[in-house]
TrEMBL record, chain A:
Residues 1-10 have a biased composition (Basic and acidic residues). Residues 1-29 are annotated as: Disordered. Residues 13-28 have a biased composition (Low complexity). The chain crosses the membrane at residues 46-68, 101-130, 142-166, 186-215, 252-271, 301-324. This is Raffinose/stachyose/melibiose transport system permease protein. It comes from the Bacteria. Belongs to the binding-protein-dependent transport system permease family. It is a multi-pass membrane protein. SUPFAM superfamilies: MetI-like. It comes from Streptomyces pseudovenezuelae.
UniProtKB/TrEMBL annotation, chain B:
Gene3D superfamilies: Periplasmic binding protein-like II. The lineage of its organism: Bacteria, Bacillati, Actinomycetota, Actinomycetes, Kitasatosporales. Residues 1-33 form the signal peptide. Keywords: Signal. This is Raffinose/stachyose/melibiose transport system substrate-binding protein. It comes from Streptomyces pseudovenezuelae. SUPFAM superfamilies: Periplasmic binding protein-like II (SSF53850).
């Protein structure tokens, strides 16, 4: 592995020059200007690879290798221990024809509303509000409180929220006390309310992260820009649309990426609150894959579903990345 | 150095594209290379045909036990065994039930396999050659005197059918299910003793409902309410039909008149408001703590909660009664299973582990420990004297129920053990629908059978 990497690194300049004429010309030009740094560069590159090596080794062992084996398993009917049989794409066919597995994908897509749309938009509002506050104890406290959910383990959050959602839990007590007792119900037990209920737990957890990240992003925006729009007579809305939003483009892209992944690969919150029920109303791919692999011992099908989930995440996240890169 | 920076700044997309291409190329080539060799090992030869020793070794050995958390009886048994046989010490490792169930096959396949492992379901383990066949010990130690019904679920044929073939497990205690009755409410409603029939039980429920007492404390978030559904199905029709189905005999079906009747009554109870309104949000732990906190007249549960319930409510606050038959004078049928342990095929001290299992079933002190710590019946030869439990305690009552069911040869396995995926994949979601008027009993029994066939075909 390591020798392979080093060889690849050392030969890169020439290979790059051969393959990419446009860039090759530029490097050649540079090299000409700087004298003959080839050996130095090669040594630098090698040194770079050596620095990267430990991380790369971990990455290969714990990410690349499992990924490759998952791809391999997905073509077999295998219980994880005994003999396996090659089944070609049968596992993939099952992922796309099994109604229950499809439902879990749809539920995960619905969760994007709660894990991405709500936290990012409320994060934008909150960050703008906090920015307009005078720095002081109140702003610091607000920031801290907003960020608190982020440091609580998701499992603990799930359990705490399942108490709050219960028939005699906090939510219903509050509803009763404001005269909306007729609305009270067991939120996690209802077929219609369970998915939004678990989704809102995700919103609660992620809003803090979004707010803090957007707040630091706003801090980076040149203050003179705000001054300029204000001099031009812009109101807060204009200011938000013209200065804040474009200035936060990168941060929003990062947040959308992180939260979409969190939505599509959600597991802990669902597992501790509803286990996918009632019926299949909160079933998500994470739960399905866990069950397939560890209770039903269908490692092949579970791997295939995992690969499909990976493709789904990439299909959603890559366009976001491209959109964010544009014009930057 | 500057050269490199320059390059990376200007040609940003190109190196990443190359890296991506390189990654994909590596992935594809490695995947293709791996595709040649299939994962897993070929099916192993059946074990247990070799010679076994029924005598305990005199060497100094350490028996490794892999057990679940919250199940301390193995510690106490190990301590007592070491006292009687000082050359044998134990190393008990614990993990949560869910983790253990998920990892058991991998633990047994590893080179560092334990000598004794808690294994709730046999699954593919027999087919994969992971277990020691206990038949030689069965003959040698005379386990044929034990209750055959209690051991049935621990047998598996080479075709993967349970209930027949060789023995692969024994229990550290054997469970029995029944009904816990809150005596405070029972007295208020004028109910006493044991209901004689399901019809009488339904009168109890109606009375409680009329008095605004929750008739049954039950949950379906994690499927625990299946205890009640099966308790009903058990009473209708011939129990061997259900047992055959649970043991995966070919041609067996869940779609029977008994299942339909059971599901119909179960749904009727839910529709009548005998269950909590948020039944689908209540899980096992909540159900038990709710009942112990006085929420509900009845709870369908097993003897494993006997000691805890006495402790939480005080002795006498609750009673444990068997589920009544459908017709007066009928035989008792109840779920009961071994707290099953297996000896992995790779165990280093298989003979000593088997000796230990035999000792647990036959040694008076060991049997007493099983009863004291778990509240479960110690199993073994029914002719052997039962350990004593505190008179009037729930453990004492559960032991009596266990003996009554045993005398009627009425033990059946739990439906959750039918296949590895059926509990979470079918019973749990479909019962949640059944209890909330989203599924009819006929569709329910059909859907369970459909899932069952799909899962058996897939494995």
């Amino acid at each position: 592995m390591s020798s392979d990497v080093r060889r690849h690194g050392a030969s890169e300049p020439t290979a790059a020059a051969a393959q990419r004429p446009r860039q090759g010309a530029r490097t050649a030009g540079l090299r000409h200007r700087l004298g003959r740094p080839t050996r130095k560069v090669a040594r630098g590159t090698a040194l770079g690879w050596i620095f990267v090596l430990p991380a790369l080794a971990f990455f290969s062992t714990f990410v690349i290798y499992p990924l490759i084996t998952a791809v391999q398993y997905s073509f077999y009917n295998w219980n994880g221990i005994g003999a396996s049989t090659w089944v070609g794409f049968a596992n993939y066919t099952r992922v796309f024809t099994d109604r229950e597995l499809l439902i879990s994908i749809i539920n995960a897509l619905i969760l994007i509303v709660f894990f991405t749309v709500i936290p990012v938009s409320s994060g934008l509002v909150l960050a703008t509000l906090i920015r307009s506050m005078r720095p002081g104890a109140f702003a610091t406290t607000a920031r801290t409180i907003l960020f608190l959910p982020q440091i609580i383990p998701l499992v603990a959050a799930g359990i705490a929220w399942s108490w709050m959602y219960a028939q005699t839990g906090t939510i219903n007590t509050i509803l009763d006390s404001v005269g909306l007792g007729s609305l009270s119900r067991s939120w996690l037990a209802g077929f219609g309310t369970a998915l939004p209920a678990v989704g809102l737990i995700g919103s609660w957890v992620l809003t803090g992260l979004c707010t803090i990240l957007l707040l630091t992003g706003i801090g980076k925006i040149d203050a003179s820009l705000y001054e300029a729009v204000r001099l031009d007579g812009a109101g807060w809305m204009r200011e938000f649309v013209t200065v804040t939003l474009p200035g936060l483009r990168q941060e929003i892209a990062v947040l959308v990426t992180i939260t979409v992944i969190a939505a599509l690969s959600s597991f802990d919150i669902i597992y501790t609150t509803t286990k996918g029920g009632p019926g299949t109303s909160t079933l998500v791919p994470g739960i399905s894959i866990f069950r397939l692999a560890f209770t039903q011992s269908e490692v092949g099908l579970a791997s295939a579903f995992g690969i499909v989930l990976l493709a789904l995440v990439l299909a959603v996240v890559l366009p976001i990345q491209l959109l964010a890169k544009e014009k930057s | 150095m500057s050269n490199k920076q320059e390059r990376s700044r200007h040609g940003r997309s190109t190196p990443s594209r190359t890296a991506w291409a390189a990654l994909m190329a590596t992935l594809t080539s490695v995947a293709l290379a791996l595709a040649g060799c299939a994962p897993g090992s070929p099916a192993a030869a059946p074990t247990g045909s070799g010679d076994v020793s029924l005598k305990l070794t005199s060497d100094k050995i350490t028996i490794k036990i892999q057990d679940e958390t919250g199940f301390p009886v193995s510690d106490d048994l190990a301590k007592e065994f070491t006292k009687q046989h000082p050359n044998v010490t134990f190393k008990v490792v614990r993990d949560s039930f869910a983790n253990l169930t998920a990892n058991a096959p991998r633990l047994m396949a590893s080179s560092n396999a334990p000598d004794l492992i808690r294994l709730p379901t046999l699954g593919d383990t027999v087919k994969d050659g992971l277990l020691t066949n206990l038949d030689p010990y069965y003959k040698g130690f005379g386990w044929d005197k034990f209750s055959a019904g209690q051991l049935a679920a621990s047998r598996m044929s080479s075709k993967g059918v349970r209930g027949e073939g060789s023995l692969y497990q024994l229990g550290l205690g054997y469970s029995v299910t029944g009904i816990y009755v809150n005596q405070k409410y029972a007295k208020r409603l004028g109910l006493s003793g044991v209901p004689a029939t399901i019809a009488e039980l339904e009168q109890w429920l109606a009375k409680a409902k009329a008095a605004k007492i929750l008739p049954v404390q039950i949950g379906m978030q994690d499927g625990v309410g299946t205890f009640a559904l099966q308790a009903l199905i058990n009473q209708y029709g011939n129990k061997s039909d259900l047992v055959d189905w649970m043991f995966n005999k070919s041609g067996a079906t869940f779609d029977t008149a008994a299942s339909l009747k059971g599901a119909t009554v179960f749904k009727k109870w839910a529709d009548a408001g005998y269950f909590p309104a948020d039944v689908n949000a209540i899980n096992y732990t909540t159900m038990v703590s709710n009942f112990q906190a006085g929420k509900g007249l009845l709870m369908f549960d097993g003897n494993w909660d006997a000691a805890g319930t006495d402790k939480a409510m005080g002795q006498g606050a609750a009673t444990f009664v068997p589920v009544p038959p459908a017709a007066a004078g009928g035989k008792y049928v109840a779920m009961g299973a071994a707290n099953s342990f297996s000896i992995p095929a790779k165990a280093k001290h298989a003979d000593a582990a088997a000796f230990f299992l035999n000792w647990i079933h036959t040694n008076a002190k060991a049997r007493q420990i099983v009863v004291d710590v778990t509240g479960a019946s110690p199993g073994g030869d029914p002719a052997q004297q039962l350990p004593t439990a505190k008179a009037g305690s729930l453990i004492d009552q559960a032991l009596k129920v266990s003996a009554e069911v045993g005398a009627d040869n009425g033990f059946v396995d739990f439906m959750a053990n039918t296949t590895s995926g059926i509990y979470a994949g079918a019973f749990q979601p479909y019962e949640q629908r059944l209890l909330t008027r989203r599924m009819e009993p006929k569709a329910f029994t059909g859907a369970i059978q459909q899932y069952y066939e799909k899962e058996l075909a897939g494995s």
